[in-house]
Amino acid sequence: MTVVITGIAGGIGRAAAAQFKDRDVVGQDLNTPDSPSELARQTVAGDLRDALTLEAIKTALGDNPLDTLVLAHGIAGAGALRDISDGDTRRIMSINFESVIETWEYFRSDLERSRGTLVVLASQAAVVAEAGNGVYCASKSALLGWARGMDAQTGVRLRVLCPGATETPLLKRALEGMAASQNISYEQLLGRRNRAVPVGRLGRTEEMGAAIRWLADLRSTDLVTATVSGGEVLN
């Protein structure tokens, strides 16, 4: 059985791939990832909003049944609403929400045949909104709402992971944008975020990768959502 992981060059996508070393993995990222080849049998470089990228992933699968689809791609979208252009808003929603749905629909029949698992990477921002991060929150909240409204009769096990603040380049860019929108330094905002987490630190990518593997292995046919945030946000 094969696992497809999107955003495999990102912090959490890479950590997820490391958790599936016992499986056949096909990866995707916007650019060819600078990662060890052992993370994936093959990695497709391309934009998931381009049908050619989806077709290339399908070709990489070959005759191997698709058992698990991990949609871990996404971009930051921090900043005050007054400073985010309509074009940027459309781009954030297109990548973080629409491309997830389009990728699911493309591989839906494969997952239904294998009665497999779909794991979607949302965010704690989908559960509780964050100041200076409105468009990103909207994109991730849309994912969570979509998952809750999914047809339970698809035969596919649906999982949503909502990571808390996790040490990744994506988060650093987001925090820098949030700090700028609040007229404070990045260091001030980072300290505030650390203090807000009951465990006293940000999450680690390996923790999120392990959570993705745990969700993928659950046999329950019910929708499962998991917020891994060090206690900062509960769902």
Counted by DSSP, the helix tally is 7
- The gyration radius over C-alpha positions equals 17 Å
Strand order of the largest sheet: 3-2-1-4-5-6-7
Look at the structure and give the CATH class: Alpha Beta
Major β-sheet annotation: 7 strands, parallel
User: Which segments are poorly predicted (pLDDT under 50) over 5 or more consecutive residues?
Assistant: none
Form type:
globular
InterPro entries: NAD(P)-bd_dom_sf, SDR_DHRS6-like, SDR_fam
Organism: Pseudarthrobacter enclensis
Keywords: Oxidoreductase
Family: Belongs to the short-chain dehydrogenases/reductases (SDR) family.
How does this structure look, described?
This protein is an alpha/beta fold and 235 residues long. The chain has one domain (2-228): 3-Layer(aba) Sandwich (Rossmann fold). The chain has helices spanning 11-18, 51-61, 86-114, 134-148, 169-181, 186-196, 205-217, and strands at 2-6, 24-29, 42-45, 66-71, 117-121, 157-163, 224-228. Helix 1 (11-18) links the parallel strand 1 and strand 2 (24-29). Belongs to the short-chain dehydrogenases/reductases (SDR) family.
